[in-house]
Structure formats: C-alpha cells, structure tokens
Amino acid sequence: MAKLGSVAVAVLILLATAVPAHAVTADFTGTVASSTCSGAVVRTPTAQPSDPALVLTNGHCVHMMPDGDVLVDRPSSRSFSLIDREGTGSLRMVRADRLLYATMTRTDAALYRLSMTYSDVEAAGSRALELAAERPAAGIAIDVVSGYWKKVYSCRLDGFVHRLREDKWTWHDSARYTPECETVAGSSGSPVLDPAGRVVAVNNTMNERGESCTLNNPCEVDETGAVTVRHRTGYAQQTHEFVACLKPGSVLDLAAPDCSLPKP
Questions:
Q1: Position 23 pLDDT exceeds 90
Q2: What are the tens digits of pLDDT across the range 155-191?
Q3: What's the per-residue H, E or C state across 22-48?
C-alpha cells in the first residue's frame, strides 16, 4: 500500500472533522404505526420492566379535538404495528387498553397504555424509547422517526416558538425544525430524538402551502403578537412535561406537584 503524502493526510483529516456528528441516523427501534399516524413506545427514566408499556403520538391522531378538550383515562382498543429495527416491516401488532391522555390544547399529544409490559415489548424484539426529563437545547441534532412511512428525517432543532397557531388551535413553546426535516402527513406522532436517542418532542405539523394560521399552515406568534409564516417548515411539541406526570406502574397523575400538562 502506497504511503499518503502530507497534503493528502491533511485533506483526509479535514474531511473527517467536517463530517457532522449526526452522520449516523437513528433506526426504527420502538416506533409504531397506526392506520393514519406514527408513534413510539416510550418510558420514563425510572420505568420498570413490569410496568405497562406506553405509546406516544399526537392528540390529533386520536381525533381533531376542540380547543380546550383534555381526555383522560378512557377505554381504548386502538392497535399499532410495532416496527422492526431496520424499518422493513412489523414485528407484531400491539393493542392499547386505555387512552391515558390526549389533548390539542397548548400541546398536541396523546399517550396510550398498551395491554403488554415493557418486558413484553423487548421479548417481541424491540424496546421503549426514553422520554427526556428536561427541555432540549436549540441547535441540537435531531431525528424525526416515522413508523408510518418507515423514514427518518434528520436535521437540527432550529429554535422554539412562543405560540404556534393553526386554525382553532394554539400550541405553546413549540420546537421548530431546520429545513432538512420536510415531514409529511402520516409522520404526525413521530418521536423526535436527541443525539442520545431520547424522545424530546413529538412531531405534529408543517406549513404546507405558505398560508397564515390556517389548517395545515401554522404561523408563529411572538410575545408582541407579531405573526411570522415559514413555508415548508416543520414543528413538534415538547414532551418533557410527561415525565413529571407519570408515576410507577405507568399511572398518569395530573395532580403531581411538578405536572404542568393541561388538565380537564
């Protein structure tokens, strides 16, 4: 093998250091798909293998709820396809027995309880994704992993939006993507992963046509009331609030001291 000259070595070093830390994207472990949306099996940092498994998706994937509605602890028989690691197919169907929480008020999120434990999920060949307990930092690399499309959108967390308004709904402190994450319908409910693979948000909308504050065309509203429209920009709702509201055994406690999720 011929030796590399000093210039060639310098070029290789420059190329190596220029490769972004996000060069390797996430796989589909823990992701699920429903008939219309994406989602993920999630757990708190302290969840136990024997706890019932939880699935995170959007509130609008339950149904398009009126602003102000918060659904808590409802019976459910919703089924999800548990996607394999490579995103080539389904490991098995999993079924929810309760809708623990769903709202489109201030955020757009839903949490289902499955009729199986986290141990059962691992026995099926997958595992739950951990919910980060803290707010993510602007600028971090993120992956939006869609079980519905079996596609990973990779970009950065561009920043946060004081109020994101879409039609009749207003969401608080939404996360905004850089342009590389051009999410589409069906990617709603996808987990947004930080570089450690933790869930920091749930994907929920994009401005599709450049309209202002209409359905599928959210607008940004700052603290002064000024409106900004970013055509083809995607957004997500932060999920760290869920951690303080979940007790052992996958029990939702909206009365917990640090729980700040919208309440009925």
A1: no
A2: 999 999 999 999 999 999 999 999 999 999 999 999 9
A3: CCCCCCCCCEEECCCCEEEEEECCCCC
Yes or no: say if 235 and 229 are a contact pair by the CB < 8 Å rule.
no
Of 4 and 25, more confident = 25
Q: Where are the beta strands (DSSP E) in the chain?
A: 31-33, 38-43, 52-57, 70-75, 79-83, 90-103, 109-117, 129-130, 141-146, 151-166, 169-177, 191-193, 199-206, 219-221, 227-228, 234-238, 246-247, 251-252
Domains contained in the chain, CATH given: 31-131+245-251 (2.40.10), 141-238 (2.40.10.10)
6: pLDDT confidence band, cut at 50, 70 and 90? Answer: very low
- Map residue 199 onto helix, strand or coil: strand
Query: Which residues make Cβ contacts (< 8 Å) with residue 259, sequence separation at least 6?
Result: 241, 244, 245, 253
The pLDDT, as a whole number, for residue 212 is 98
User: Which one, of 231, 255, 230, 233, lies nearest residue 245 by Cα?
Assistant: 255
Both tokens of residue 74?
A: 């409802």
Q: Whole-angstrom Cα distance, residue 183 to residue 218? A: 14
CB of 121 within 8 A of CB of 129?
Answer: no
Coil, strand or helix: which one is 10?
helix
